[in-house]
Write a structure and sequence with these properties.
The chain has 570 residues and is α/β, with parallel strands linked by helices. The chain has 17 helices and 14 strands. It starts with a helix and ends in an 8-residue tail after the last helix.
């Protein structure tokens, strides 16, 4: 190597060190100054975000000038920017639509156009297949061995081994860089791309099964509903084998012409208890107590949706989709006073509930909260017994409610009573076979459970059904019921004066003045696709206060992949 080459290499190396020093000692302090001067709960200014984007372009150009790849500079800048809100997530939000909607598909298209299948030889294909299969089996086999000494369950270790074989955009980017640098020939590049697609196609479907983790999105509009919500979550019976992940969404009506925001509250570990002076603080700290009591069995994420009420359902459905929720619990639009009278009626909430029922990507439950009529009942810390009833007539919605209730039956402070209503003189066992099998499986799973009971009540018509339901007044703390039921003489006459169609016939009756009870009610709707058609899904019971805008939600790929059981396993 001559002196000029050595001098050029030394100059390129020194220039790279200078670029790194500028990023560390100039750019990074500026970023921290921006964050320090951003008020709590405020969004980083547009000017700062645009300036950072321009700096990324300059860094890419500087990298090329210095003899490095253009990715080098922007990569260092990315490491210098703190992840998450308020700055990191704000930048992601600005780029998300542009990148995922335009650049990402264009990059995949270009990579596909570079792939020439006609240059591939049979011998090379065999060699690459052997390498890929060996690497895949090595990862799948080694991880469980290591997990054996770290006390990680075998199933989780196996899934982790599969995830290590998942490839995507990063691998394609590296392959393109190697091809441009002539490290890979056209044949090698084509084979590598095929291997990436093939392995990803095999691993991805393994993430599609429902899981043991119950993911509940609870929407809270009034902090008076928090005690009942906490009781519902506690009754959901979180365990290490079947944990409960709570996504709490605080619904805040947007007044004026301000832009809607979705805000993520800081993790509980950074919360100060004395910050609970705000409305959100009281709610978050109440959920914090639930999480602490169920340490290792339950997790809680808290968000605030600040939007116009007529658009609030979009935030709810978006968060439910992004967080892969199993069940969305939304508040009822009526609130009771302590004397049992209706205190307020919010029609905007009723409209929101109707839209959520139509568009939700999972099961939905409308929570009619009468907890204020019973006082400060709490089942946390084994303070009280929680009496739950499931009213069962038949159909997918009732199956969904029973599946959720069956999970509760394992809680030591919960008594579960299943009350099935049958039509007098009707003995069509074929039509009821699915219901019979499902109930039999639940009863079999609770054999020996003294806090579990099953009843059958035979009625002649809707009048008899209403009379039987009235007999349940003040017997329970929570009643679960499906929203819709198949056409039956049992329902005749009950739907003539329906006031709240979003609750269905039985749910509406349970909230009417004809049912004088202090029990809260959860009206459950099975997951429906667009157009109201039922999803085909096997119902197998197995038994911060510094608020910052949320622009990007964390992926739960591992939890989704480990998921192998029913949404409400018990």
């Amino acid at each position: 190597m001559d002196n000029s080459s050595i001098k050029g290499s030394a100059l390129a190396f020194a220039s790279t060190i200078v670029l790194l020093a500028i990023i560390v000692f100039v750019f990074r302090p500026i970023i921290m100054w921006i964050l320090a001067n951003t008020k709590e709960g405020m969004v980083v200014g547009e000017l700062f975000v645009v300036a950072i984007f321009c700096t990324v372009l300059v860094a890419g150009l500087a990298s090329e000038v210095l003899g490095q790849h253009f990715i080098f500079g922007p990569l260092l800048l990315g490491l210098a920017v703190p992840e998450g809100p308020p700055l990191g997530s704000a930048m992601v939000a600005k780029l998300d639509l542009f990148v995922t909607g335009l650049l990402y598909p264009a990059f995949l298209t270009v990579s596909g156009l570079k792939t020439n299948f006609f240059e591939i030889t049979l011998q090379s294909t065999g060699i690459v297949m052997i390498i890929v299969i060996f690497a895949t089996l090595l990862k799948v086999g080694v991880v469980p061995v290591i997990a054996h000494y770290t006390e990680i369950p075998f199933r989780e270790a196996l899934v982790l081994g599969l995830l290590l074989n998942a490839t995507g955009i990063c691998e394609l980017l590296i392959l393109n860089l190697w091809k441009d640098g002539q490290i890979l020939s056209n044949q090698d590049f084509s084979l590598a791309v095929i291997a990436v697609v093939a392995v990803t196609a095999i691993v991805t479907p393994m993430q599609a099964k429902d899981g043991a983790e119950l993911r509940v999105l609870v929407c809270i509009h009034n902090q008076d509903n928090v005690p009942t919500v906490v009781n519902l979550l506690e009754a959901s019976y979180a365990t290490e084998e079947s944990p409960v992940e709570v996504i709490a969404l605080l619904l805040v009506e947007l007044v004026g012409r301000a832009a809607p925001m979705l805000i993520a509250h800081q993790p509980f570990e950074t919360l100060e208890i004395n910050t609970s002076t705000s409305r959100s603080g009281h709610i978050i700290n109440a959920l914090h107590q639930y999480r602490v009591y169920n340490e290792g069995r339950a997790t809680v994420q808290s968000f605030s949706a600040i939007s116009h009420m007529e658009m609030m359902h979009e935030d709810i459905c978006r968060v439910a989709f992004e967080q892969n929720a199993t069940l969305v619990v939304i508040p009822f639009h009526k609130h009771w006073a302590i004397d049992g009278e209706i205190e307020s009626v919010e029609r905007a909430i009723q409209h929101m509930n109707t839209k959520v029922l139509e568009k939700a990507p999972c099961a939905v439950g409308i929570l009619i909260d009468r907890g204020i009529l019973k006082g400060s009942l709490s089942i946390l810390n084994n303070q009280s017994m929680y009496h739950v009833a499931v009213l069962y007539i038949g159909g997918p919605d009732d199956m969904e409610s029973l599946s959720y209730g069956a999970r509760m039956a394992n809680h030591t402070n919960v008594t579960l009573t299943i009350i099935r209503f049958l039509l007098f003189g009707s003995d069509n066992a074929r039509d009821r076979k699915l219901d019979n099998d499902f109930i039999n499986e639940v009863c079999h799973a609770n054999t020996g459970n003294e806090d579990f009971s099953y009843q059958e009540q035979v009625v002649r018509d809707g009048v008899g059904l209403a009379s039987s339901i009235r007999g349940l007044e003040d017997c329970f703390d929570l009643i679960l019921v499906g929203r819709q039921h198949q056409a039956s003489p049992l329902m005749q006459g009950l739907g003539a004066w329906t006031e709240c169609p979003e609750l269905g016939v039985i749910g509406d009756f349970l909230t009417s003045s004809d049912f004088d009870s202090s029990a809260s009610v959860l009206v459950v709707q099975h997951h429906r696709v667009l157009g109201g058609r039922l999803m085909s899904r096997a119902m197998k019971p197995i038994i911060n206060d510094r608020d910052v805008p949320l622009q990007s939600m964390q992926s739960h790929a591992v939890a989704e992949t480990i998921a192998l059981l029913h949404p409400y396993p018990f």
